[in-house]
């Protein structure tokens, strides 16, 4: 829309609410423009529940507003989260039918027509072929962006469409680079836009791009502090870069915002579990083991409470997944292989939320060299893996592909087949290194190192740990493992550098871990320049 960039203005919401600067002109009653902008700002920070309420209020206030129904339909399609279910697809299709009908009776601008056409294509095709629906929507949004290059909201939504259109096995980052080519120049022009900052963070949530997302991560929470999701999202980049205190601060703020919304009976707060997930991981990287343990034990009851509450977001039914995942991660990070080998899934966990349990058991079985447990873990995992793949969730499908190879590696080791073990584990690492570990995960390269340690191959193990630190910087266990290998190889200065960083990360913590105590003592006895970069 010509001149739109010059009319980009700050979203002024009711009270102290701050969601960022957006502007989305619509052919509706002028009195609804501010409310429409608020809905767009909520969409850009994935506040789908509140955005839907906003657009329904607009549709009621202005029954001729076609774009209000487009807005409702947008809240049913959560591009980077789970696929819409049958009810959401039905609602979206019905709302888009209303949008088309109203647009014909009460003419809208060519720009609005393209928004309606794009989302209509998605809802017409997605019930039969979801990927085809995403492809069609992305193509139409590309046309919209080309036809209306000054439409900042269209540019942001086009970039988001590109991210949603990445296949599970696509490790090229081609679409991520296309999205950044749209987002980064605009973010320099519009540094208060919530969607630009948010989608840059998502695009850069991979090791090779994480540094490019740091500036957006530093400001997104300030842009939209009224959104718990906006307060959490910077943690994705901070975690990728090993900036643990920043990660902790980000997610503590997100949890506080969710708790405040809960107190005020504002819906859609189930993402608190995701913020807690990041907190637990960051606490483990900084030696705050007891804090991590307390949050882990609280996850199951928190999930049950979220599931029972009305008007929740996508994650309301994911409590079992978070509890299963974090029970496994906590025991794995603490190297409690015996407990991990017997870890149990939450009662009534659906298969697609239970796959972390046999993964944890299988990894533990490898360390314990228990072939029977390793064999059963593979059987259980493959059953759950099918359920995950059936969801079509790109993020989780990529995880299970890597974890399956890891389990095959530990199973082979438990059976004494060294060559097969290393081949499977290295295949997992090669796959994972293209996109990076999952949000809360143990790097496959670290597992390669662990396996090589068990095989007595210290030099190769150290190389694997260094590679793990390249892709997942500042991880506590990897630093400790690398220090141990360097020390065993007689490389005192190199060992001291790894140990010093581990000691720095855990300073002020109350950890009782013997390996951390050793790192602290070693680094004190062998002082180095703590500003020296880790290799």
Describe this structure in words.
InterPro entries: TPR-like_helical_dom_sf. The chain has helices at about 35-45, 50-60, 65-75, 85-105, 110-125, 130-145, 150-165, 175-190, 195-205, 215-225, 230, 235-240, 245-265, 270-285, 290-310, 320-335, 335-340, 355-370, 370-390, 395-415, 420-435, 445-455, 460-470, 475-490, 490-505, 515-525. With about 525 residues, it is mainly α. The protein has 3 domains: about 20-220, Serine Threonine Protein Phosphatase 5, Tetratricopeptide repeat (Alpha Horseshoe), CATH 1.25.40; about 225-335; about 335-435. α8 (about 175-190) runs antiparallel to α9 (about 195-205). The termini are far apart. Residues about 1-15 have low confidence and may be disordered.
């Amino acid at each position: 829309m010509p001149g739109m960039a010059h009319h980009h203005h700050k979203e002024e919401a009711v009270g102290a609410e701050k969601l960022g600067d957006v502007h989305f002109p619509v052919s509706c009653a002028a009195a609804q423009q501010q409310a429409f902008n608020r809905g767009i700002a909520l969409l850009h920070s994935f506040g789908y529940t509140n955005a839907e309420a906003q657009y329904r209020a607009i549709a009621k206030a202005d029954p001729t507003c076609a774009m209000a129904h487009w807005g409702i339909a947008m809240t049913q399609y959560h591009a980077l989260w789970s696929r819409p279910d049958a009810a959401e697809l039905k609602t979206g299709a019905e709302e888009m039918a209303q949008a088309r009908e109203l647009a014909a009776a009460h003419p809208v601008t060519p720009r609005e027509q393209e928004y309606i056409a794009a989302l209509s294509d998605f809802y017409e095709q997605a019930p039969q072929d979801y990927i085809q629906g995403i492809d069609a929507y992305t193509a139409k949004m590309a046309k919209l962006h080309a036809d209306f290059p000054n439409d900042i909201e269209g540019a942001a939504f086009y970039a988001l469409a590109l991210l949603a259109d990445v296949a599970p096995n696509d490790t090229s980052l081609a679409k991520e680079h296309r999205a950044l080519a749209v987002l980064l120049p605009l973010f320099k022009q519009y540094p208060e836009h919530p969607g630009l900052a948010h989608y840059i963070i998502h695009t850069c949530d991979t090791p090779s791009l994480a540094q490019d997302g740091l500036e957006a991560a530093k400001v997104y929470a300030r842009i939209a502090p009224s959104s718990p999701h906006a307060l959490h999202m910077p943690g994705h980049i901070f975690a990728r870069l090993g900036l643990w205190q920043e990660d902790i601060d980000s997610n503590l703020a997100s949890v506080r915002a969710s708790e405040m919304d809960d107190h005020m009976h504002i819906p859609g707060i189930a993402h608190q579990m995701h913020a807690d997930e990041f907190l637990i991981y960051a606490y483990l990287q900084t030696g705050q083991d007891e804090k991590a343990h307390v949050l882990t034990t609280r996850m199951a009851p928190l999930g049950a409470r979220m599931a029972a509450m009305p008007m929740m977001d996508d994650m309301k039914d994911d409590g079992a997944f978070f509890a299963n995942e974090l029970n496994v991660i906590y025991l794995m990070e603490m190297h409690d292989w015996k407990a991990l080998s017997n870890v149990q899934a939450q009662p009534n966990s659906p298969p697609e939320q239970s796959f972390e349990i046999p993964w944890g058991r299988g990894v533990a079985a490898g360390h314990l060299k228990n072939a029977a447990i390793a064999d059963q873990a593979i059987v259980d995992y493959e059953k759950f893996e099918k359920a995950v793949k059936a969801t079509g969730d790109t993020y989780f499908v990529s995880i299970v592909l890597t974890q399956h190879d890891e389990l095959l590696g530990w199973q082979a080791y438990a059976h004494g087949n060294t060559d097969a073990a290393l081949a499977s584990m290295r295949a997992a690492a090669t796959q994972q290194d293209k996109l990076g570990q999952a949000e809360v995960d143990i790097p496959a390269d670290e597992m390669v190192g662990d396996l090589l340690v068990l095989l007595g191959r210290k030099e190769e193990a150290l190389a694997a740990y260094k590679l793990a630190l390249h892709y997942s910087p500042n991880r506590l266990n990897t630093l400790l493992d690398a220090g141990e290998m360097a020390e065993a190889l007689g490389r005192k200065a190199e060992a001291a550098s790894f140990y010093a960083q581990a000691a720095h990360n855990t300073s002020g913590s109350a950890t009782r871990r013997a390996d951390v105590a050793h790192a602290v003592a070693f680094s004190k006895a062998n002082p180095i320049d703590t500003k020296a970069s880790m290799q």
